[in-house]
Automatic annotation (TrEMBL):
Top-level division of the source organism's lineage: Eukaryota
Protein name as it appears in the record: Nuclear factor erythroid 2-related factor 2-like
Region span, Disordered: 287-357, 370-424
GO biological process terms held by the UniProt record: cellular response to oxidative stress
Gene expressing this chain: nfe2l2a
Organism expressing this protein natively: Sinocyclocheilus anshuiensis
Classification lineage: Eukaryota, Metazoa, Chordata, Craniata, Vertebrata
Amino acid sequence: MDLIDILWRQDVDLGAGREVFDLSYRQKEVELRLQREKEEEKRQQRQREQEKELLAQLQLDEETGEFVPRSAPLTQDTATSAQITQNGAFAEQDGDAMAFDECMQLLVQTFPLDEAAESVPPCLDASDPPSTDLMMPPDIPAFIQNPLLPGSLDQAWMELLSLPELQQCLNMQMQESLDMKPSVEAQDPNYSQYLPGIDHLSLVKTEVCPPEYINTYDGSFNTMVSPNLSQMSLNVPEVGAEFRPEEFNELFYPEMEVKVNSGPLVSDGGNMVSQLAEISSDPPVNTVDLHSFSPGSFSSGKPEPMAEFPDSDSGLSLDSSPHMSSPGKSLNGDESFGFSDSDSEEMDNSPGGMESDYTEIFPLVYLNDGAQGSLSEKPPTDQQEMKAKNQKIEPAEASGHSKPPFTKDKQKKRSEARLSRDEQRVKALQIPFTVDKIINLPVDDFNEMMSKHQPNEAQLALVRDIRRRGKNKVAAQNCRKRKLENIVGLEYELDSLKEEKERLMKKKSERSSSLRKMKQQLSTLYQEVFSMLRDEHGKPFSPSEYSLQHTADGTVFLVPRIKKILVKNN
DNA sequence: CGAAGCTGTCATCAT
DNA sequence: AAATGATGACAGCTT
């Protein structure tokens, strides 16, 4: 379940938001893809007529929507051009006529589980016995053809499938599902919750899994899976029959779904617990731990705080996702009292960051809860405890079950965690005020509120701490905002000044050019005027002997240069 | 793996 | 004197 959860988050991190899991969204995608595929099919038919060889080598890549050279699917070594053509033919003739159950029965009959398991390569055998079965007969692949999933999801699920532990789980689940077809049907109800079109399936939902649990963890899986299940028989005729990794994934989603839903619930009889026990180096992974992840268990496990401060969440973790805040709350609420910020920082990271380690962390947390006593001792105690926790957690990570996805999961806004922690502290000290009020209430109201409650020293210190931190946080945000605005303003001013400088330089250049032009014109005019002047003999004046000078009033005189020189000398 | 950026927090001073 | 705002500095975390 942890792995599934991790991978689901990985899907989200990879860009597959909840909208991806939405039926309508996916249906649109399907329509587009189908349209594309029809076009491509037409083109392919033309190509078949022209070149059969090309046909064998070309294949519609559902991820990119392009025809690419056919590469053998992961587990399909037998993929040949002949089979491809067979698949295509089968898709048209048999695909729509054969229901999923019928195909499954046929597969089970044709390929017993033992053979199927043996025939599957190691990397996928665990995860998809059914899919391998489906692949084997050339007529089945039509099922698998479903271009619903985006590439990112496909990748994420491929990663999921590549996990050995999960493959084991999936393998066992798959075998069970093959034996008991109803189990597969039981999964649908969950899917239907997120699929408007599959309402009829929702009848069994409550029997399979608590609604809260489904809401928090199963939603994504459900939406991913359900379209495929519901439309599996419908998709068969329309899409080309080809094997792809993502198709396998789609087939497996139901199984994962089953695990997610039923794992914690049916943990006693199911394989999940045993698998988890094998996976985890820490033996004490039990159903209680698993249940601790579900929202319902959160509320049930910590009834008092939740009941006492029902609106505390809304007060501060406005932008925090419920999924994230919930675990943190249950975690911190139990153990958090009056510890220092640094402690709380550590708290933040471990619970929020390693979600897959919930099973390991939560038990520890519960222990801590019980151990928590007075308020004043908390800071050092918590630090030590956290260190101990981390040490305990590390082995599990070292065992290879904490993976890169965890680091992605760690990407949470500290604000969310901080608020959540403060809330938990408030709850822990049984302070009947929301953190929001503690921080944002005016001084008078705040003091009045506090006086009414008559808080003890620890409560008062915590409340004032929270208020100070909260206000300072806002102040820091504003300060940084101002700083950025100042930077932006200065940059803008700098740009303006540069533009101004540019403009002035350009103006200067223009003026200089204009001045040169005017000098040129003046010179021309001077020569023109001078050349028109004549002495008493009708001869022009020599420019070397005479020059023209003008006074301020515009009067022009012809001045002999010698005289002028004499005047200058004088 | 290191640099850069973001955010919360603390210390300090100013209001 | 207390509360609050502003801001530099620091640490932890993410990108």
